[in-house]
Amino acid sequence: MPNAKKVLIITYYWPPSGGSGVQRWLHFSRYLAQMGWEPIIYTPENAEAPIEDKSLIDSFTESVHVIKYPIWEPFEAYKALTGKKGKKLQTGFLNEGGKQDKKWIQKCALWLRANLFIPDAKKFWIRPSVKHLRDFLKDHPVDIIVSTGPPHTTHLIALGLKRATGIPWLADFRDPWTNIDWFDKLPMTKWAIRKQKRLEQSVLAEATGITCVSRTWTTEFEELAKRSVKLITNGFAPNDFQHFQKKEDQNFTILHTGSLNADRNPMVFWSFLAEEINRNEALKSKLKIQLVGAVDVSVIQSIESCGLSIYLDQRPFIPHEEVIELMSSCSLLLLPLNDVKNQQGIIPGKLFEYLASNQAILAIGPKTGDSAQILQEQSNTLVIDFDEKPTWEAIQTLTSGVIDRTDTLSKYSRQELAKEMSAFLNELMLKSSK
Asked: What pTM value is reported for the model?
């Protein structure tokens, strides 16, 4: 595109990598390209992505300028030591179960991860990337740089480029850094903690602008950075729902899509269902619990202990477009949040797609959290606390009637959010030119 403004986007996740990490800047890139921008993507040649989704590859991803550079990650060595060679590692792999004689290896690996791989296990990509991109930018100048993390290695690459070139830079945070819920669980030395915080402060101080995905986390970053941070949430892509048609559910299907880890295990809700089928013959004959994606063993154990195994339909990861299709024929979408520190700011990316499906949504998490605030603006949603049981009457009310969120949901479309991002990038370029 002639006279297009060029934006270099540094991201670890790009198709065929799948999952939530890829969605934000895949969609921003797509819509920014329609708004007078030329996105240039920088991503690893050989990323260790836990999920692959080739359905995300389309005419846009095939045509956009993508720079790939090899990355060395310690995962292969870890997998060889623990007998997982050739397997994909899920997020949080260092806490996976295993044989007793391998536990000491996992503990050692966790200690190494916490104290040597700073800010994260992608750190070996920083220096070669800064050198490679510095050379690239000499012949292919850009107007602005974007880094999106986690992994926060991407921000340190952008920091190196900002120092070397002076090009304005936006640091986009999809999750907190040192305020992330699992940060305190890592066996870090005081030196490692200081280094993580020092790196975080360098990024927050030197980035031309900062964006974040939730109101609570935006406020936290503002307190850390002592400056303003722009809130731009995630959203949904209207094109994904272009041919979406709700279908009649022959059962009473409760659907959860995506990873369901131990922190999200809705044990009280499973208990409620177990009690309800004992007094509700209609539910007993129609109940179906559909879990699509990676599910922690503790979740399966909870379902089994409640006597609900016969109602369980568990499926592995499926392509994103098939997930959207599954949403069309359920009765209730289940959205349990992480029961962890800093839970107020958690807004799962799937929340917006759940809303766009015009299906009933039951969320389990803090009633004053950012997810709850968004859901409470919309029809046919119910938020209950982690230790709270719903009533069957409330569920029936939730799932009844015609649901149409078109008007109230439009501000969360990826296109509208991309307009906000485009305006903010222009603002940062103007600020930098003064």
From this structure: 0.93
pLDDT above 50: residue 94? no
Omega before 151 within 30 of 0, i.e. cis: yes
- 25 contacts 146 by C-beta, under 8 angstroms: yes
pLDDT tens by residue, 97-142: 344 445 777 788 889 889 999 999 999 999 999 999 999 999 999 9
Q: Which two tokens stand for residue 123?
A: 């750190």
Summarised one tens digit per residue, pLDDT across range 398-428 is 999 999 999 999 999 999 999 999 999 999 9
Separation between Cα atoms, residue 10 and residue 32, nearest integer Å: 15
In terms of C-beta density within 10 A (0-12 exposed, 13-18 middle, 19 or more buried), how is residue 101 classed?
Answer: exposed
Q: CA 69 to CA 41: how far, in whole Å?
A: 11
Please work out, in degrees rounded to the nearest 5, the angle formed at the alpha carbon of residue 65 by the alpha carbons of 63 and 67.
135
Sheet holding 144-149, edge to edge: 65-69, 37-44, 5-10, 144-149, 169-173, 209-212, 230-231
Structure tokens at 310: 């016969």
Instruction: Retrieve residue 406's tokens.
Output: 């078109």
Give the strand pairing for 381-384 and 312-315.
Answer: unpaired
Q: What radius of gyration do the chain's Cα atoms show?
A: 22
Residue 6's DSSP bridge partners are 38
Angle at which helices 414-433 and 20-32 cross, to 10°: 70
Q: Phi, psi (5° rounding) for residue 6? A: -100, 130
Count, in order, helices (H) and strands (E) of the chain: 17, 13
Apex CA 214: angle with CA 208 and CA 219, to 5°? 65
